[in-house]
Amino acid sequence: MSKILITGGCRGIGAACVRHFTAAGHTVAFTYKSNAEAAAALCGETGASAFRCDQRSGEAVEQLKRELPFTPEILICNAGIAWTGLFQDMTEREWDDLMDTNVKGAFLITKAFLPSMISRQNGCIVYMSSMWGQVGASCEAAYSASKAALIGMTKALAKEVGGSGVRVNCVCPGVIDTDMMNGYSKEDKEALRQDTPLERIGTPGDVAKAVAFLCGEDSSFITGHVLSVNGGFSIS
Question: Max alpha carbon distance in the chain (Å)?
Fold first, then answer.
C-alpha cells in the first residue's frame, strides 16, 4: 500500500480520488483551500487526513510539508480553478490568480515532494490537466493555457526524473459532472452529452480510475503520457 497526497481533494475529481484510494487500502492525505466542512466530512467518510493549504504560496506549501505525517510516494496534483469569459474581459488579477493556482501551485507542490522521491529512487506524480489543454476552448483561453502548461511540464519532467525512478503522467478529463458545470444549463449539458461519442457525461469516478491506473503497477513502464478521459469528445 502507498502513501498518497492529493491536492484539491475535498470535492469533485479530487474527492473521487480520495475515495478510490482509501477504499483500496492506501494511506491518503489531501489538501483543501477553504471548505473545512466538506474536508471534515470526507475525512469522516474515508479515514483520509485533510490539510488546509493555499498552494499559490510557497510558505503554505512548506508548512504543509512540515505538517504532513508521511512523505508521499504518490503525488496527485489535482487542485485548480477555472475562469470563463471573453479574453479581453479577464483582468490581470484574475489571470494571475488562475495561473498561480493551476501552474505555480503544481510547481510548488512538486518541488516540495520530488526530492524525497528522487532520494528513494521511486515515486509517481500525476497532474490533472484538461482536454482544453490539448485543443483549447473558446472563452477559456487562460484555463486552456494553464492546462497546456501542465501537459508540457509532464513531458519535460518525465524525461528529467525518469532515471531517478520517478514516473510523471497527466490526465486530461473531458466533460465531467463536477461543480465546474454548475453554470451550465440543462440544455447545454444535454448538448455536451450528445457531442460525446460515448453519449454520456463523465463522472469523477471515471477520472479517479484513470488516475489509479497511472499510479499502479500495471503502468510501471508508462511515463510522460497524457491520458484522455473524455468519452471521445476530443480525439487526437
Answer: 52
- From CA 105, how far away is CA 98, in angstroms rounded? 10
Q: From CA 83, how far away is CA 94, in angstroms rounded?
A: 8
184 is a catalytic site residue = no
Q: 3-229 adopts what CATH topology?
A: Rossmann fold (3.40.50)
State how far Cα 41 lies from the chain centre: 20
What whole-number percentage of the chain has pLDDT above 90? 93
Are the beta carbons of 96 and 181 closer than 8 angstroms? Answer: no
Helix residue ranges per DSSP H, 10-124: 12-23, 36-46, 58-67, 92-99, 105-120
Q: Which listed residue (32, 127, 143, 184) is catalytic? A: 143
Which sequence spans correspond to the domains of the chain?
A: 3-229
Packed helices 12-23 and 36-46: angle between N→C axes, nearest 10 degrees: 20
Per DSSP, 106 falls in state H
The answer to whether the predicted template modeling score (pTM) of the entire model surpasses 0.70 is: yes
